[in-house]
Amino acid sequence: MSGTSSIVTSVLDQLSASGHKKVVFCNDPDTGLKAIIAIHDTTLGPALGGTRMFNYSSEAEALEDVLRLSKAMTYKSAITGLNLGGGKAVIIGDSRKHKTEALMRSYGRFIKNLNGEFITAEDMGTTTRDMEYIRMETEHVTGVPESLGGAGNPALYTAKGVFLGIKASVKEVFGTDMLAGKSVVVQGIGNVGEHLVDLLRQENVEVYISDINEERLHEVARKYKAKPIDADKIFTIGADIYSPCALGATVNDKTIKNMKFSIIAGSANNQLADENVHGQLLLEKGILYAPDYLINAGGIINCYSELTGFGKKRTMQLTEHIYDATREVFKLSKSEKIPTNLAAARIAEKRISDIKKIKSSY
Ligand SMILES: NC(=O)c1ccc[n+]([C@@H]2O[C@H](COP(=O)([O-])OP(=O)(O)OC[C@H]3O[C@@H](n4cnc5c(N)ncnc54)[C@H](O)[C@@H]3O)[C@@H](O)[C@H]2O)c1
């Protein structure tokens, strides 16, 4: 008994520490579904976040991940100016082995029971096909295929946001946002990376690319006249900008030490290995960091458009706002002498607290 109560205490303590509103544990023995839906904050609107399917080694690890990711969604939507709160869900299991129609639809019914407080989308380990299954049970899902009225692949908007984040950073460091003649290393040339290489090459940027997929690396290099480089050259090359578009945590003690870049601006989530340490280290080293969750918000803007019925034109207009939002972050960082990741968090928190106040009056 004491063991049970200490588990309950520790889960609720975790929620209090991270400011979470609600966490739903979903268990369906018939389909094997084991999922956790975390709703961090709904001040600005329903909590929107993707559903990740991953073979977590423990339930504690899954809970830690979903709490971290859902909180980040609150900040992302707030700073992007969307009327959305933050949430995220994880399904525990191997997406290649354990995923079935029944499991996804069972999961969809758990979302349905939240009556719109949580809206989901694709993430690692889930596909548009899975969103279709969820849609069979609930309307609270985005990222369904265009043929079903969805907004389609968000990568183009994500790449555009990152491109504008790069422009805003170049303006801050070099005094003009003209990109011609600058050099960028794009790490990861997948869905987002390739569109970004295209946009950069259109502005005559010297682009270096790196990817673990050799075939794709050479194909993209040929197509856009970019220069392929080995992974071990990324942090020693003397380029102006590093654009991480593959994995998180690539900005860490080891990499920062060797970095010669002036700017870090890419699409990968959680680029700073430790938010509390590496933002400050970059500031001290004079490397300008464009906060990842702001400049990669094109994806969530696309989901928001799908929900609100905005078309592609409005999606692009909202994505273009990322330039000004990034400039605002740099302004606050400079005036307060704080790391840019902290400045972004302050702007997001202020918007939430301002809107909370107006919602308290009839
Ligand atoms: N797709 C979106 O709209 C979107 C939105 C927000 C954030 N993101 C983030 O941006 C990043 C890229 O997304 P994507 O949709 O292009 O993914 P993707 O899977 O299409 O592409 C990732 C690419 O990175 C490469 N890669 C993997 N490990 C690597 C390594 N160690 N070094 C170099 N390359 C490596 C892969 O081979 C692949 O080509 C991810 O971190 C994703 O979470 C994407």
From TrEMBL:
Keywords: NAD, Oxidoreductase. It holds the Pfam family ELFV_dehydrog. The keyword Chaperone does not apply. Residues 152-360 form the Glutamate/phenylalanine/leucine/valine/L-tryptophan dehydrogenase C-terminal domain. The keyword Manganese does not apply. PANTHER family: LEUCINE DEHYDROGENASE, VALINE DEHYDROGENASE. Belongs to the Glu/Leu/Phe/Val dehydrogenases family. This is Glu/Leu/Phe/Val dehydrogenase.
